[in-house]
Amino acid sequence: MKKRTVFGALAASVALSLTLGGCAGGSGGGDDAAGGGGDSGSLVVGFAQVGAESGWRTANTEDIKRAFDEAGIELKFSDAQQKQENQIKAIRSYISQGVDVIAFSPVVETGWDAVLNEAKAAGIPVVLTDRAVDSKDDSLYVSFLGSDFIKEGEKAGQWVVDEYKDSTDPVNIIQLEGTTGAAPAIDRAEGFADVISADPKFEIVASQTGDFTRAGGKQVTEALLKSNPDVDLIYAHNDDMGLGAIEAIEAAGLKPGEDIKIVTVDAVHDGMQALADGKINFIVECSPFSATSWSTS
Ligand code: GYE
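^ Those are the sequences you sent over. The predicted structure of the assembly is below.
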């Protein structure tokens, strides 16, 4: 049995998009796809990635490249360095190069209608991966492959509720948010808040973005620990920010996982190591190979 990743699924979705979009392009597999899509007879996909902000993203990028390589589909890849304007530029460039399919993982949820309308007008199907867009017009993309971030936030919240079920003392929580406006930041905050709001002893005493990076998590935690010395728990929207928080907690002479508990999302290698070391208390898994299905092929 072989694990089929989201990008194995993406390769399949790309084939489907071609049918739906009625685009030109062959069945792929050629080494001759040097230029734009369509004319060369092999399939060309432009992928606009968010950036390289986290261990999750690095694993995700490697998986995308491997899946397209294995499928024999030419991949044009760009890294937007977490900036929406860079992603929009990359998408516009894929449109002018005439790729067969555009795939992207939107850095934030809103503000995509104009560029997606341009892709639609050019007859290029768009596949969303990992993160969704917030648009009223669902004709702007053909499919979305990604995780349920609200559920992830709920799972994190449920662990917190269970962990403190025998205590009536107040529980002061610092939240390290992902990129402002990004689907996983919005949804992970929402799911978590929904679950912990059932008991007023839980209070989010401070909540700030660390932009899904280790440096961001460290910096924000350093500052917030000064203004909130009696914090009990940190909920970080990803492992990397949690790992940054560990550094800040240790620098303050405290023990992460004991003096201050840490809950994160992702379960990348370094996060799992910190969990094994007792510095992170709980991780909600969000696989970079998620939307995973199993097949025998
Ligand atoms: O959790 C985080 C990354 O969009 C699910 O983005 C992804 C998130 C992931 O930077 O580590």
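DSSP finds nine helices and twelve strands in the chain. The chain has two domains: 2-145, 149-295.

Shout if you want it in another format.
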